[in-house]
Write the structure tokens for this entry.
Amino acid sequence: MSKPILILPCSGIGKPFGSIARDATFRVCDELRPGKTDTLCLSLLVMGDEEARNRVSSSRCIVVDGCPLACSRNNVERSASNIAAEFKVMDLLRENRGLKPREVTFLDEDGEKLSKLLADRIAAKVDELMEEPE
Amino acid sequence: MKVRPKVGVVSCSGECCGLGTLSRVATRLVLEDLRYDQTATICLPLFLAGETQEHGFAKEHPTIAVDGCGKLCAMKAITKYSNKPAAGVDVEAVLKEWGVEPPKNRRVLGTQDLETARRLAKLLADKVDEIQEAA
């Protein structure tokens, strides 16, 4: 069986986009593709935790960023890992202009819709990656 | 009149377990409700990936590090790149002291978890007041 794919969201706290990235990641890891995916603390990785660095450098990673600052991508790249795919909440917002998430702490209806859409896309990418050789 | 400094509240928002979610929700409750005009925050990953401007955060604001677990990523990161935080909260240790179970679900907090988040937010708000009084 393939090693779980690591999904690393930015979990930004200032705007709803980081919350959507985080929520979608948990949907995939805990509900849609449990066992096939996992996550770990981005801050722990960046602070140089050896176990976190080993896991990231030996796994295929999907980064999920809320805003264009791309903190997840930038921080994961510093660990010299193989980023297999990248998702940006802003891309999803551009495709769904009618959805206007406003809440950060607890996602509102539009935030929930975007989280579900994003989670489905990430899950589809996980399936695709699982078909490919590691 | 004494000028009260805005206090920085920085959460680890760790993804490993529900403790990171608690740290994040409690922080947000302080920012948007309990002390909304007295506090500021920065995304920890942005702070970590950032440069001079981001690393100046804890120099501009006396800061509270809110960590989900004993690994204390927020406390260590702020100390390393900016300034020693004015205070720190280890949510895991606080929950042990209170005899409260950590959340089982890291995406959606249950009723008991939300009550814990509110209690943690009150603890953080008290720390904000203490820091402002001491400034």
